[in-house]
Design a protein that fits this description.
Layout (H helix, E strand, L loop, with lengths): L7 E2 L5 E8 L5 H18 L4 E13 L16 E8 L6 H8 L6 E3 L2 E13 L2 E5 L5 E4 L2 E2 L9 E9 L9 E9 L9 H21 L3 E6 L4 H5 L17
Parallel strand pairs: 1-8
Antiparallel strand pairs: 2-11, 2-12, 3-4, 3-5, 3-6, 6-7, 6-10, 8-9, 10-11
Length: about 240
């Protein structure tokens, strides 16, 4: 059984919200400028809810004229690297933006930004506070495990995805994914209600700053999440947004 004094966490997420933002860039330099602006707005939305301690992104450089925005079939990049930025006082926007600058010749492309270690504001039995993996207890099949999780109860990432793949006129969009692997944000309890208040305020700020075209909520019914944390999708409180599909 789940100990109600724990902040339980599963190895799988049970619910993910995906904020879709159309990409307007027509070339790779415009893509980097667009990404910078989008990330500025995302960092602004973190205020009071999320502190990033580790952020990573994958930089790829393609030959001139071979920008993924215009080429349906790509050659291998001429350069590929992963940047990791860590700061246990919190990664700042300026530090992150400096990390995506490059003076390498060619077409720069960053398809993914991942916030690998974060603290998020939640309601707990001890009051509202910031939590991360170190505050959580891992469960499997509703049984407590003596294994410290290496992932956080809420995870966030930004991806640039191609919407079609048949010709050179493909459109792209950014997808900001927010997924939960702890039931603290969806359980029907006082701390669950307070946690949802913080998460809903974060979603409202995202809505105002990144202006998503659509927000999708994906309930992963087959995930171990539900069995691990002894909760069903029907019991979960999922009223985070008013305009979900």
């Amino acid at each position: 059984m789940i100990n109600t004094s724990d902040i339980p966490i599963s190895t799988e997420s049970g619910v993910v919200w995906i904020f879709e933002v159309p990409a307007a860039a027509s070339n790779c330099p415009e893509h980097i400028s667009e990404l910078r602006s989008l990330c500025e707005n995302i960092f602004t939305s973190f205020q009071g809810f999320l502190i990033p301690f580790q952020v990573s992104h994958s930089l790829r450089i393609y030959d001139e004229g071979n920008c993924p925005l215009r080429a349906p079939q790509l050659d291998d990049p001429i350069h590929r690297e992963t940047q990791e930025i860590q700061n246990m006082d919190g990664v700042t926007l300026d530090t992150f933006l400096q990390s995506i600058d490059t003076d390498r010749p060619g077409e720069p492309w960053i398809p993914r930004v991942s916030f690998d270690h974060i603290k998020t504001q939640a309601g707990t039995n001890e009051g509202d506070r910031f939590i991360d993996r170190h505050d959580c207890t891992q469960y499997r099949n509703a049984e407590r495990l003596d294994i410290e999780p290496t992932w956080d109860p809420l995870e966030i990432s930004l991806s640039l995805v191609r919407q079609t793949s048949e010709d050179a006129n493909d459109s792209f969009r950014y997808e900001l994914s927010v997924s939960v692997s702890s039931s603290i944000w969806i359980e029907d309890s006082n701390r669950g209600q307070r946690s949802r208040t913080h998460l809903r305020a974060f979603f409202d700020r995202l809505d105002a700053t990144i202006d998503p075209e659509r927000v999708r909520r994906d309930i992963r019914y087959a995930a171990d999440f539900w069995r691990d944390l002894n909760i069903t999708p029907e019991e979960a409180v999922l009223d985070m947004r008013l305009d979900l599909d």
